[in-house]
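Chain A, query sequence.
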Amino acid sequence: MCSRSQAKTWAEIKSRYLLDGTGYINEYLFDYENAFKNCRYKIFKEYDGEWLHFIVDSRDGIKVWSAYDVIEGGVANDRVIDTVEAFKAGQMSEEMALQELSKHQPNNQICILKQEVVDKYLIFQKSVILR
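Chain A, predicted structure.
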């Protein structure tokens, strides 16, 4: 699920600002099965109309995410944000936006919104030192 190369890149960037220059990557397991059964869990499997409206509403300050404990789905990153913004501004129809979004494979993220979910279902595995 996670991108080790992305984590390594961010750790290397951030470690430049530390006195000793040492970066770390922490590795965790997420207990999907129990979290999915016991939490209010929302999964966006693709960039679709529901995902598009969820992102636009969130960016407009509507707390659509507050109904969930965990949200999983495609990141509104540099590859797709121009499409989202064009749709939001009325410069692109939903149909056109979805057609453009269909060209991209979602880079998924998990957003854990409740501390008790972290405490119960996110299990620390190890810390790796980057030098």
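The CA atoms of residues 54 and 75 lie 12 Å apart. Residues 4-15 form the longest helix (12 residues).
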